Structures are given as structure tokens and as C-alpha cells.
Amino acid sequence: MKTQADIAVVGLAVMGENLMLNMESKGFTVACFNRTVSKVDDFINGRGRGKNFIGCHSVEELAASLKRPRRIMLMVKAGKPVDEFIETLAPHLEEGDILIDGGNSHYPDTVRRTKSLAARGLLFIGTGVSGGEEGALKGPAIMPGGNPAAWPHVKPIFQAIAARAPDGTPCCEWMGPDGAGHFVKMVHNGIEYGDMQLICEAYHLMSQGFGMSAAEMHEVFARWNQGALDSYLIEITRDILAKTDPETGRPMVDVILDTAGQKGTGKWTSQAGLDLGVGIPQIAEAVFARCLSAIKEERVNAARKLKGPRKPFRGDREKAVAMLHDALYASKVCSYAQGFQLLRAASSEYHWKLNFGEIAMVWRAGCIIRAQFLGHIKEAFVNKPRLPNLLLDKYFKRVTWRAQRPWRKTIKTAIDLGIPVPAMSAALNYYDAYRCERLPANLLQAQRDYFGAHTYERVDKPRGQFFHTDWTGTGGKTAASTYVV
Fold first, then answer.
1. How far is CA 34 from CA 31, 39, 40, 41, 80, in A?
2. Per-residue pLDDT averaged across 129-145, rounded?
């Protein structure tokens, strides 16, 4: 065993342990520390027995166990615990040492930490790690960003432990300075929210609308996973629908309460859309769907009092499922289009110079939203690095055009049956709004000018010139300042 470690991991929950085991399996010696030090001994004597790990019982011991520059990866809860550990570790570090936050931190915190630690001579990386506990152990998608000077020192480790795309490329690449890595991971999670909600809406329509059993839906998802919808989330949905509850003998999915949890990254993504002025309604609807699921008792009471359609589905079920497939795929395209629009806006606003093709490549394996069609996204941005929206790419234009009829008919069927499909509807609304040459915002601007003198632009004048109308004849000529939030 080596006398000094290549890297240290702080935080021995499932993700931290699995990342360490992954690192050790690739030939690295890993030091470990946990605030509850008994967990260090439990790991060293358990899953880490006989392997190249150095268990540390204090931060002083941790610092002494590492090669220079020291590389310490924090796998602790986002927020205050990260700052607390930074302050605990920093006095024991030297100029050029590297701290890595591998949790789901909010990107403004990463921006702040990168700047403050640079002032103290320390290098900071905020890295998104996606793939759950299995990914951490066998190969996650890794999205690092922060102080660029730190990247050469962690690149060999990160790319060694990362998942591999089908072409063998490691699913880990430098995203950009300060908060870029955590922003990309946040958007990944926002797309994940949208993807999961779309799949749940398809399940809801099949089960409650078409009257399909879990076994029948399992067969549908198994078939879908062999084609264009091939993805990790479709794959696990297939497996979930085949699982039986050992206590009742019922499908496992039927005994799980319909209230969904969330950790905040979907909300952060939606908020970032508002902050940057980017329309991502599908991702926001997925967050709101979870919020609505949480008020279970209220919904049960409302179900007794509020009436809706009662007629059963009487169409061709096989044909309806085929149309649902196309509607799901087209909606999925819109979800990714919105996510990449947000990435583009952030890259411009924060001067990150994000490489959208590389981001798609990083997401092709290891992460939760890994899917076959990410290869098409990578190709779209390789062909046109300045592509303003995925919907304008040749492949995705063709996909969404072919899906028009089944997409619209599926949503109409859901409406006729009284089954909510908020994400799927938001996807189609986004598509229709994006392709709409003239939206009704002209009336909205007239309203704003009428009640608040907020001014407007004219179709027959150059952009950037603003005008005000005295709508009532008593308002005068004074207008409010023109600004966009």
C-alpha cells in the first residue's frame, strides 16, 4: 500500500463510499474522513478491507496523508455543511491545494467559493456527479467547473472513474470557470425532472386512460427501450413495472403512495430560467407536478367533489399506444431543447464558453438522463456550434414534424379522458410558441403601456425605439423607464 494518498474523500454516505471504491479500483490510493469518525473504521474494516484506503480520524491526519498538491473531494450535503468543511480544512492546506465539491450545490455558491478560496491561494472545483449510487461505483457522468488551474491535477482521476460513451470517450470534461460545472449539472437535473414527468404521464394515460395492467405496460416500455426512446429512465420504468410486492402480490408500483419528493435542483433550474429570461415551461411544469402530488389528502377530498369526464377510452388501444410513443419522443426533444437554451443563455451571461456538443457527450453514459438520442444532440452542435435551438436542427425538425398528428391527438385524448399531462402539453405549447411568427405579446405590451406607461416598440420602426400612447386622453406624455428584468 502507498504511504500517501492520491486523493481524499470527505463524507462516507453511499455516494462517497462508492466513489472511493471506484477510484481505488482504477489504481488510486484514497484517504477518507467523516465527521462521525466511527464510519471511517466501519468502512476500512468493511467494504474497504484489504484495499488501498487510508482511514483518517482528524483533518490534520487527512492533510498529512495526501500528496501535493492535496486533492480533497467533499461529498457532503449541499449548503452550510460545505462551507463548514471548507473552513475546517482550509487552515491545514497549502497554496495550490485543491478542494472539490462533488455534491448538488447551487451554482452561485460555487461561484462564491471559487473566488473566495482563490484569494486564499486555494483552488476550488464544483463538480456535478450524476448516475446515483450505481454510477458512482461503476462510472458516473462528471461535470467539473471552477478554477481552471485545478483541472490538470484532477483530470486523470476524474476521467479514469467516469463512465464511457459507446465510442469509449470518458463522460467527463471540463465545463468552464467558477459555477459552470454545477450549472450544467443543475440543468441536467431539470431535464431529468421533465423526462421523468413525461414518462409518468405516459404511464398515467396507459393505466388510467387505456386500462392497461402493469404487465402490459412493462411490455410496452420494454419495446420502447429497443428503439428511439432507448434510455436509462425508460429502462428502469420497464423494470419497475415488472416488480411484484412480496407482501401483497400486487404490482409494486400500485402500492407506492403517489406523492413525489424533490431536492431542489428542478426548482433551481426553473428559477434560473426566470433569472435569465429563458422560457423553460416544461421543466417548470414538472416541478409543479411534484408540488401538486404532495397535497395528497387535499387531492383525495377534491376528487370526491370536483367532476370531470367519465367516459372510458373506446378507441384502438394499440394505435393509441403507438401515438403515445411519438408524443413522448417529441416532448422529450422539447425538454432537451429548453435545457440547452438555458445553457446557452448562462454561457453568454457568465462568459463560460460552454461546449454544448461536449455536454451532450458527457451525458451519453453514466448519468440519469443518458439516452440514445444524445448522439443526435452532439451531432447537431458539432454541425452548427451556434445552433440557436435544437428544434432547428435537421434531425429534430424531421422528428417533430413526423410526430405532429400523434402528438396533438395524444394530448387531445388525455384531455377528453380528464387525465393531466402538464409536461406533454407544455412541450407542445413550447413548440407552437417557438414556431409562431406573431405572438399576442403586442396586446400585452399595449396593456402594460395603458396602465403603467411602460412603452412599446412598433412593427414599422427600428428595434430599440420605444413609444408611448396616451390611451385615455388624460395620461399625458410622460412614460416609465424601459427595462427588461
1. 11, 7, 6, 10, 16
2. 94
pTM over 0.85: yes
- Residue at grid coordinates 466501519: 42
- What does pLDDT average to over the chain? 94
d(CA 462, CA 460): 7
Residue 419 CA to residue 403 CA, distance in Å, equals 21
Active site (annotated) includes residue 51: no
Rg (CA), the chain: 25
Residue type, 341: Q
Q: How far apart are CA 142 and CA 169, in angstroms?
A: 12
Distance CA 356, CA 7 (A): 29
**Catalytic residue of the set 192, 201, 285, 358:** 192
Q: Which of 478, 441, 444 is nearest to 468 (CA)?
A: 478
Q: Which residues contact 31 (CB under 8 A, 6 or more apart)?
A: 5, 7, 8, 9, 53, 54, 55, 56, 62, 65, 66
What's the length of the chain?
485
pLDDT digits (tens, 9 = 90+) for 402-438: 999 999 999 999 999 999 999 999 999 999 999 999 9
211 burial via Cβ count (<10 Å: 0-12, 13-18, 19+) = exposed
Alpha-carbon span 333 to 460, nearest angstrom? 35
Which of 39, 185, 267, 378 is catalytic? The answer is 185
Instruction: At 334, list the grid cell.
Output: 422539447
Lowest mean pLDDT among 220-224, 383-387, 470-474: 470-474
**363/374 Cα distance (integer angstroms):** 7
Q: With bands split at pLDDT 50, 70 and 90, how would you rate the model's confidence at 208?
A: very high
Residue 185 appears among annotated catalytic residues: yes
**Which residues are 177's β-sheet partners?**
146
Report d(CA 403, CA 428) in Å as an integer. Answer: 11
